[in-house]
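Tutorial handout. Part one gives the primary structure; part two gives the three-dimensional structure as tokens.
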Amino acid sequence: MKNKLLIAVGCVAGIVGVRVLIAAPGWFKERRENRQFIAVNNLTPERLIARCGPPIGDETKNVYPIITRDMNYKSNSRGTIVFKFSKTAEESSDWVFVSMQDSNGGTDYDSPSTKISALSCLDSKK
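Part two.
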């Protein structure tokens, strides 16, 4: 009787273990995607500088009632990348991340994973 109980418990533990091993890659992928989404969507000029260092170009334009800021970073694989931010001219306004593009305007980086693959310092794990 005791042996049968141990065998049953072992079988259940084996089945649970296999299911966990099958589901684990999906959990890790989802966790990575969530981290990348948060890292990119909470991006401000200050966070960008903190993660990636000073830009090679930084231009702010005051076009009342909007202030725009373009920051250029050198990518190892993609040339120069331009980060575009904007905010209202009010003093209490926060910067909003608008877009990320090649300096020649040819490529838009739409998903968090493409943004991080273009400039790896954006990833909060690094």
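Part three, for discussion. The chain has one domain: 1-126. The chain has a mean pLDDT of 81.
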